[in-house]
């Protein structure tokens, strides 16, 4: 870099670091990190200084896998800059905590660590002017409010699921008995839902291991009127009926601001938040496959299959006779059937983590066997890939209902998991009598989703409007 260019870059970086500072604090899970970081990158690109934060354990994993720096000035992105600085919460991840133990740890260690992080920004000359939190760490709202800092919430699930939780918290949702499969739940702006279509966290059968997780969500909804802004990872064209219907509910919820789909954009991909290094060979392997020939299978970062379920899925994928790419968590890979990896050599690839955005966008990918987590749902919508839906818990149940029955871009793999059901579902999605219609529907939604986040699209306008308001308020202060 020439001397003049270096000086100009220094001046530009200094100007960015003096821009209004927004800090994002995120629950320590990959499914929350992805949309929160992607929102941060889009806000930074509009001219803000953005700091992304989570627990020390998350910081160590992202630093190792994605090469980001903990502390420091960060990196330029669009008109702004994004940096990383993680909590000193006295948990380094060396001893793996069960989910409820982690939630309990954060309830105790999170608030003082977050307050300390905010003070560090003040002392460093970049005071935080706004905080963005997500629904699973409601204590972060209390810390921001105590510090006198306005804050926003990013709801990382669908507007439909937001409506179900909101109605439940305010006593407006009557759920039928879990064994009454013919009964239907009806709410404004939503299709009729069976009890198996509502988030499983609202049902009596919700297992103990999710109790604290569920309580964190409900605690957020009891305080949902406190944030200055409520963002949602969706887009207007996808869920307009739900957003409009919510405004007639009493008590009236805050206006949802769609800013999604928060999928990875090409111009932002250099800054990633992977807690596990993706298998780089995935894309090269896909390059060797025929167009629309590969089955991609991934059940997310939290799902744990039993040895029997894993074997059924393994044999189901192999029995299709199609090439497949399967993401199997490292703690599950030891449960694969003996000799399985050798038996699929040359036509199947099993990896611990994948660059999912690149895999779904690849022309060789024909369909996606998915758990229907909301991030994955939006990624497959944006990519235009039809699905075989296998939801297990939480909002996945509602997302699958919409993907299959409302968007008509896939089929269900019915539980309990059996190899024949896996094979038949995949065959129906790729080559069945309705496969062409499902692909057309998926591709149509891809155009709408991509348009929403493109310059001037509905979600891009919402983000710009927030940034303009934020800059105006910060300037007046």
TrEMBL record:
Indicate the family of this protein.
Answer: Belongs to the UDP-glycosyltransferase family.
> Which Enzyme Commission number(s) are on file for it?
2.4.1.-
Which PANTHER family does the annotation name? GLUCOSYL/GLUCURONOSYL TRANSFERASES, UDP-GLYCOSYLTRANSFERASE 84A1
Q: Which InterPro entries match?
A: UDP_glucos_trans (IPR002213), UDP_glycos_trans_CS (IPR035595)
Signal peptide residues on this chain, from the entry's feature table: none
Q: Which EC class heads this enzyme's classification?
A: transferase
Q: Which Gene3D superfamilies match?
A: Glycogen Phosphorylase B
> What GO annotations for molecular function exist for this entry?
quercetin 3-O-glucosyltransferase activity; quercetin 7-O-glucosyltransferase activity
UniProt keyword list: Glycosyltransferase, Transferase
Q: What is this protein called?
A: Glycosyltransferase
The source's domain of life comes to Eukaryota
């Amino acid at each position: 870099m020439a001397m003049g260019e270096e000086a100009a870059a220094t001046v530009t970086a200094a100007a960015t670091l003096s821009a209004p500072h927004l800090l994002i604090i995120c629950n320590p899970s990959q499914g929350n990190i992805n949309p929160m970081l992607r929102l941060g990158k889009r806000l930074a690109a509009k001219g803000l200084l953005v700091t992304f934060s989570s627990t020390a354990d998350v910081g160590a994993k992202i630093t190792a896998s994605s090469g980001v720096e903990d502390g420091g000035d960060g990196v330029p992105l669009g008109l702004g800059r994004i940096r990383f600085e993680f909590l000193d919460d006295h948990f380094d991840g060396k001893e793996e905590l069960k989910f409820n133990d982690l939630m309990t740890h954060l309830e105790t260690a999170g608030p003082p660590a977050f307050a300390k992080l905010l003070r560090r920004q003040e002392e460093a000359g970049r005071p935080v002017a706004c905080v963005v939190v997500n629904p699973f760490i409601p204590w972060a709202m209390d810390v921001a409010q105590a510090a006198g800092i306005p804050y926003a919430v990013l709801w990382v699930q669908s507007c439909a699921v937001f409506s179900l939780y909101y109605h439940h918290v305010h006593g407006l949702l009557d759920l039928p008995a879990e064994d009454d499969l013919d009964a239907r739940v009806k709410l404004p702006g939503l299709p009729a839902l069976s009890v198996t279509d509502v988030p499983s966290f609202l049902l009596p059968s919700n297992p103990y291991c999710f109790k604290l997780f569920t309580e964190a969500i409900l605690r957020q909804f009891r305080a949902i009127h406190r944030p200055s802004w409520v963002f949602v990872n969706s887009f207007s064209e996808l869920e307009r009926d739900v957003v409009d219907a919510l405004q007639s509910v009493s008590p009236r919820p805050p206006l949802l601001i769609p800013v999604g789909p928060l999928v990875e954009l090409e111009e932002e991909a250099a800054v990633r938040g992977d807690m596990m290094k993706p298998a780089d060979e995935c894309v090269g392997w896909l390059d060797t496959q025929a167009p629309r020939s590969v089955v991609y299978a991934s059940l997310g970062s939290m799902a744990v299959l039993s040895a029997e379920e894993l074997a059924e899925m393994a044999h189901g994928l192999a029995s299709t006779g199609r090439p497949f790419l399967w993401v199997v968590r490292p703690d599950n890979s030891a449960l694969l059937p003996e000799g399985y990896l050798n038996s699929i050599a040359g036509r199947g690839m099993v990896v611990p983590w994948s660059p999912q955005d690149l895999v779904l966008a690849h022309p060789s990918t024909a369909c996606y066997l998915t758990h229907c987590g909301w991030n994955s749902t939006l990624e497959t919508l944006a990519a235009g890939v039809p699905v075989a839906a296998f939801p297990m818990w939480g909002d996945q149940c509602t997302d699958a209902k919409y993907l299959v029955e409302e968007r008509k871009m896939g089929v269900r793999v019915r539980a309990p998991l059996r190899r024949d059901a896996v094979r038949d579902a995949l065959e129906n999605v790729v080559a069945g009598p309705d496969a062409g219609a499902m692909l057309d529907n998926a591709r149509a939604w891809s155009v709408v989703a991509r348009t929403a986040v493109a310059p001037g699209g509905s979600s891009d306008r919402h983000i710009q409007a927030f940034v303009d308001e934020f800059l105006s308020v910060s300037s007046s202060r």
